Amino acid sequence: MRVLHIAYQQLRRYGKTRVSWAQKLTFGLIKNDHYTQGFSDRDVAAFEAPFGIRELGIKKANRRLLETVDAFEPDLVIAGHCDMISNATLLAIKRRFPDCAVIHCNNDPLFVPSNVERIKHRASVTDAVFVSTGRRELTPFEGLGARVYHMPNPVDAAIENLNNANRTDLAIDLLFCSNSNDFTQRLQMIKRFKDALADEMNFKTYGSFGEPPVWGRDYDRALANTRMGLNLNRQEGDYWYSSARMAQLAGNGILQFTSAEPRFDELLPAESAVYFKDEDDLLSKIREFHHDDAKRQAWAARAREFFHTEMNSKLYAQYILEAALQIPFSHDYVWARDIHLNGTMK
Question: Is the pTM for the entire model greater than 0.90?
């Protein structure tokens, strides 16, 4: 298949990039032998704009996308987080190539009101939308025109290439990285934990409390020295919703602590992630695993094996392509056992 993937490719970061679910999707498509062309809307807008002022290049970016579509003739267009591309442009693609499926992939949380409106906006002009919250939470997007699916956060063997579950020589006992304080109060709890654990373990909180954030290879080096990590969303409770942090920790063999509210115990194998009910429960379990390194290694190894086997970028990409083009599922995708091929719930 010929796939055009519209997503921010971080070209102007010049290597100091964030781990990207969109990049993993591209990698997965290529690993599955699909001819994949990328289009980075933000970068094209900046490159085409006078004086590099991105907002002045939006119209030109939309025209360049249509030029790309005409030249590439895709079977599938994936519109990710590409707000500079208008719905009118996506409709123009469908008029030019009626047999080309156009879908939207959205990896942001539903507790952000503007994101809910973004998904509804895209659902009105696309064939399908894929959202990183569990399918049973996605009923508000039914009946808008697009089929509705859940998608997970995958690992990629080229990116999550560590296996800290096999190591005991790790300097960071507990890690939490964050750069967003919108729609959340999680840092108040993190501060209490830093105070409580200060004399017990090395707890690094890059991006908060005066510790600078880490990106690119600095982030890789932080992960490479970490035993355990906190997978704390800005808000908890949405079914099967987690930031991409879950895959980054699990895929590198780092034991993760995550809220019980999203019910990942219904997706992940037993004794792989550590679920907590409240702050006291979490603090107790951090101490438990800190003092039982063999248990930490066993649980982290189980999570790593599951993610690399069942939630990897190849399966993720093939699932999205099959659902988009209505090709019968070629695999028993663990995250889609409650979803029919047409997106409806079983």
Answer: yes
